[in-house]
Amino acid sequence: MFATRSVARVALRSAPNAVRYFSSSRPVAVAYHSYTLPSHNPPPPRGDDVPETSITQPDPLPKVHETRPPPQQPQRPQPPQPQHEAPSQNAAAPATPKTPSAPAPKLNEKEAQKPKAARPRPKLRARKAAMKLTPAAVEQLREMLDQPDPKLIKVGVRNRGCSGLAYHLEYVDKPGAFDETVEQDGVKVLIDSKALFSIIGSEMDWAEDKLNQRFVFRNPNIKEQCGCGESFMV
Known about the structure:
FeS_cluster_insertion_CS; ATAP; single chain; four-stranded mixed beta sheet; Iron-sulfur assembly protein 1; 9 strands; 5 helices; three-stranded mixed beta sheet; HesB-like_dom_sf
């Protein structure tokens, strides 16, 4: 209780001093200063002269029923770049002395006029006939072909006899596509293409006896032959 009374006394004593200080202090006022506006315009913002591209403004998408392509943006022309002149190669490269070229060898007049040797041609050798004719066979064939309507004689083989193959002769008007032609002493004889392997290298002869007259063949390709000599095997 005594503490409260002492605090109150101290407050009453300090109150007149505070009123005196507030009444004696001057009011604080803010001074006003005028400023002039700038006469020149501010510079434009950077990138103002750059045309609008797809980055700044996306390309408009075509409509559903519109088939025309979207308008293209105008391209900005690029300033020409200065071209630097390259030093000439003639000035940089050292001058090399020209050496005289060696003269071409001249041919003698005789060598120039001499004709070139002709290329030797291969010699064509006569092919060996597939079958030989004896003089008796040639004479008999000439008599058989000396007729008003002559025909060619064709020699072949047939599967006949006890050994398997037998000779077969027939008259034909013209040779076949693959028949072999044997010409000797003005007489032509045809060999069947199917029988050429069995007849090649044979000799054709004409034989006469008291029983018969016929053409006989001496064939080196025969391996087996029947006793009568009618059939053979190669």
